[in-house]
Amino acid sequence: MSPRRILVTSALPYANGPIHIGHLVEHIQTNVWVRFQRLVGNDVLYLCADDTHGTAMMMRARREGRAEESLLSSMSEAHVKDFAGFDVTFDHYGSTHSEDNRVLCAELWASLRKAGLVAERDVTQLFDLKEGVFLADRFVKGTCPNCKSKDQYGDSCDKCGTTYTPADLIDPVSALSGTKPEVRTATHLFVTIEKLHDFLAEWTQAEGHLNPGIANYLKGHFLGNPLRDWDVSRPAPYFGFEIPDAPGHYWYVWFDAPIGYMAATKEWCDRNGGRFDDWWRSPETEIVHFIGKDIVYFHALFWPAMLKAAGFQLPKRIQVHGMLTVDGDKMSKSKGTFINASTYLEHLDPSYLRYYYASKLTPKPDDIDLDFADLVNKVNSDLVGKVVNLASRTAKFVSGGALSATYPDDGGLFEAGAKASAEIREAYEACDTARVTRLVMSLADRANEYVDAKQPWALKKKGDTAAGELRDVCTVALNLFRQVVTYLAPILPKLAEQTGALLSAPIERFDDALTPVAGTTVKEFSHMMQRVDPKKAEAVVRASATAEAGPAGAAGTDDGSALAAEPLAAECTIDDFGKVDLRVARVLSAEAVPEAEKLLKLTVSLGGDVTRTIFAGIKAHYAPETLVGRLVVVVANLKPRKMRFGTSEGMVVAAGGAGEAFVLSPDSGAKPGQRVH
């Protein structure tokens, strides 16, 4: 059978924030599937990009006093770094704010125009008077007009699934300013998707394109009635691409975001000598999208409609996963369960999370829960106790030597494991990694039973008289270990690399699990995976927790203990105070200093292009990502201090006594560069 050519994408993370453990559900699932396809010999192109446009990016850049392009560059670098930390790498990682994406957007738009699928009409829209912008759907909250659930976003209800416009919300509030928005009328452009109703009804229900449950959901909620026109434009001001034939209007972020898949392909082709049409206009290519169930509406209705109208290849499969809960609830900053990727990596091995997610994910779009106690037990029991234990209990007896020249009789264990290959392949293909882990752990259990029965440690004590038998037993055990790890290689690529190095037999194909190795050199065994320390798991949650500020004037503890612990300093004159130049600054970036127990490295903006690097001793009190974008007060004229990590060019002002630190922030409305008097 000739190799399949597959173009694979993960949904584009929004550039307005860091990568968190919710993003990683999808990207780990995609990466596992991509690694499996490559191990079985298929030609795979794996692409992703930052989703960059919209009001959110415009407002953040405005707050930070810098151009959107500068913000996008720093966020892209951070995203790629975070993904790589979890062994998620891409053939190309692009940006929707690229010239290739602009050109492709114009091409698809022209096709929609030519097909008579574009309409124009006035829209009643919400406008934030304080910020001076029209409000995107996700920047309005209110009560759902259908089920009356409160605190719902302006495009759809999390409770009942109803879609609507922000103006339909009851008691809407701007998420940007907290003020009540004003209703205004503006001209918008629409794609009349109903004209493709019959095509979409057929495509969504075709076998293999979508999970049956998702297909039924689309049929029941959308395709049973005429499809609403899709609003694809926003009036200025808006950060995005201006529509060529409609000056003053910009494509809505959900129009250009999926086209970003195509732009990333074009960029990869230009850099690697590929042909774009081989990937997007060839029926020999399988296009597979991995997405969360919250964006099915856009990917399974609008996106196929756009591709159909423009004559591009349609997705062969849209793999939909559920959402992540942590300890049974939505991710929460106050509870410490809204965990950024970088925070996790400071405390725990990424392999733990890759395996845990894989053990939970099935082809169905069911939500999965991250229970840290369960993660500790599962990793310690499965990976350390069953898998790595096979090597740790046997490799030391043959380290520096070689496996037996021919594979010994093992009672059919390796052959039985090889026969499981077809079922494990099938499970990987279906994205049923929960089933994969169950099947592989059953093989690991049998291998451990073999080691327990043969007791190589007892054979070692017999000396030279049992040396041949000991080598044979270790050869069998290490081959069973390698077989198990080969099956887990898409999930645990680092463990696969370590295993290949240990046995001088790299794992390069999925079929390596079908044939034992013999006669290869066994290197000295070193720890492949440590047991999960529950305290480190708890540290992830602690580091992610952010204190929720009470209302202004709220009652506090004013018993005088803080003042008694640190009495007032000697009097100073106004001239003395004037020598200290306190300025408002915005934190542009924050990162831990690995070599320092207490320090965070901050880059702060004093407005315009003026920035300072400051090393602050608040590592124990603040996760770096919670400080980014925050206004702080700094001593701007403090003499620079050279440290072994770099030069600190100021000081962040904080309150607190022994073991405490509370960074001071100015009230809302303050701007970077303003002096504190």
Helices and strands, with pairings:
Blueprint lengths: L4 E6 L10 H19 L3 E8 L4 H10 L3 H18 L6 E4 L3 H16 L3 E11 L4 E2 L5 E4 L8 E2 L16 E5 L7 E10 L5 H9 L6 H12 L6 E2 L1 E3 L13 E3 L1 H20 L3 H5 L4 E8 L3 H15 L6 E5 L2 E3 L14 H5 L4 H11 L7 E3 L1 H21 L20 H7 L1 H9 L3 H22 L1 H6 L5 H22 L4 H10 L31 H11 L16 H5 L8 H5 L3 E11 L7 E6 L5 E6 L14 E5 L5 E3 L2 E3 L2 E2 L1 E2 L6 E2 L14
Parallel strand pairs: 1-2, 1-13, 2-3, 13-14, 15-16
Antiparallel strand pairs: 4-5, 4-9, 6-7, 6-8, 9-10, 11-12, 17-18, 17-20, 18-19, 20-23, 21-22, 24-25
Helix pairs in contact: 4-7, 4-9, 5-6, 5-9, 11-12, 11-15, 12-15, 12-17, 13-17, 14-15, 15-17, 17-18
Could you characterize what this model shows?
There is one protein chain. This protein is an alpha+beta fold and 677 residues long. 38% of the residues lie in helices and 18% in strands. The chain is built from 21 helices and 25 strands. The strands form 8 sheets. It has a 5-stranded parallel beta sheet with strand order 3-2-1-13-14, sandwiched between helices. A 5-stranded antiparallel beta sheet has the order 19-18-17-20-23, with no helix packed on it. β13, α9 (296-310) and β14 form a beta-alpha-beta unit. It is globular and about 90 Å long. Mean pLDDT is 91; it is low at 547-557.
